[in-house]
Amino acid sequence: MTGSVGVVGGGIMGSGIAEVAARAGFDVVVREVDDVAKAAAKNRLTASLAKAVRAGKTSEVEREATMARLRFTTDLGEFADRDVVIEAVVEDEHEKVAIFRQLGKIVSPDCLLASNTSSIPIMKLAAATEHPERVIGMHFFNPVPVLKLVEVVRGRETSDETVEATVAYAEELGKVPALANDSPGFVSNRILMPFINEAAWALHDGVAEAEAIDTIAKLGFAHPLGPLALADLIGLDTCVAIMEVLHEGLGDDRYAPCPLLREHVEAGRLGRKSGRGFYDY
Fold first, then answer.
1. Superfamily of domain 4-181 in the CATH hierarchy
2. For the whole model, what pTM was predicted?
3. Is 204 a known active-site residue?
């Protein structure tokens, strides 16, 4: 496969997106905010690929070829020649809008501009560019190298050509694209977040302990992870941010974050990434 990809953000999601693109044969540039974050992104990708070799999911030769297709930068200007750019920064509307405003002035007129946002309306990001028809949502799922789904979110002004190109690109990455229209939380988080929130309420109200809630969900609903463990994996701060987007966008109090979720976030208990959430890691 040929083509060039830019990924804005080298965190857990961004590095995962960069990895699958590079493994699929694309030339990939990952942009981070500073040299420290840039080094962390490279280390994250290096560790992930080494783990894949140890697990027998890729070879040492393929690992080296993948790393050769990856480049790291702090300069958004290096995205001027990219065919596809995927934004994967923190779930904050103001930060994402600022990035799209910059990207709209940098990338070529034919570049596909995608966001990995899990809840923020695509139309708000598209409005920051001069070509909203080429802006679309590509919501990957964590861990990106493992999970096949990509929720492809069509904004109000997204063109048919952009949708078709995004679906084709997702398939080139070995993913399964599923189409959704632009709405707070799209399909996945409109369903998932109330589930996680209700589990937090059950814990808050003393209905059961965290382990019991997750065991009931895993064995009763055949879920690989319980909702509280899944929230820890996603990040409790991200869960609260998504719930707030749902609450504001849909105007329904059933989407208001459980106080226990807010308390954990305020205490710095963000889940796996901080070492503590509903569980200790």
1. NAD(P)-binding Rossmann-like Domain (3.40.50.720)
2. 0.90
3. no
